[in-house]
Amino acid sequence: MAKGYWIAHVDVDDMETYKKYVTANAAPFAEFGARFLVRGGQREVREGTARKRTVVIEFDSFETALACYESPAYQAAKDIRDPISTGDLVVIEGYDG
């Protein structure tokens, strides 16, 4: 079975409030078995444009990735993040070729 991933590109306007989002998302990520593959870090944009922060999170399946996003606990965390950030998030099925 293919894994599921969240790929997010985010600009954060208030890092102190963003830290509250990080604290709030810990429980749903643990519940759904999320594993961070990329969480900020050094990077170089070689083509196109990108937001300031990139995050890649792995889940056991695409369905689990969707369920985590749709969970009440994650939506509550998202409510903290939304007013202080602008971002793009894709939930995608991994290649199982």
Model description:
The protein is α+β, with helices and mostly antiparallel strands and 97 residues long. The chain is built from 3 helices and 4 strands. The protein has a 4-stranded antiparallel beta sheet with strand order 2-3-1-4. Helix 1 runs antiparallel to helix 3. It is globular and about 40 Å long. The termini are close together. The relative contact order is 0.36.
Q: Short description, anyone?
A:
The chain is α+β, with helices and mostly antiparallel strands and 97 residues long.
H/E series, N to C? EHEEHHE
Largest sheet, spatial ordering of strands: 2-3-1-4
Rg, nearest Å = 13 Å
Largest sheet: 4 strands, antiparallel
Shape from CA axes? globular
How many strand elements?
4
Secondary structural class: alpha+beta
Could you estimate the helical fraction of the residues in percent?
A: 25-40%
Residue fraction in strands: 25-35%
Low-pLDDT windows of residues: none
Average pLDDT works out at 96
| Separate helix tally | 3
User: Terminal Cα separation, in Å?
Assistant: 10 Å
What is the element layout, followed by pairings?
Blueprint lengths: L3 E9 L2 H17 L3 E5 L13 E7 L2 H9 L1 H10 L3 E9 L4
Antiparallel strand pairs: 1-3, 1-4, 2-3
Helix pairs in contact: 1-3
Notable characteristics:
globular, 31% strand, 97 residues, 3 helices, 4-stranded antiparallel beta sheet, alpha+beta, 37% helix
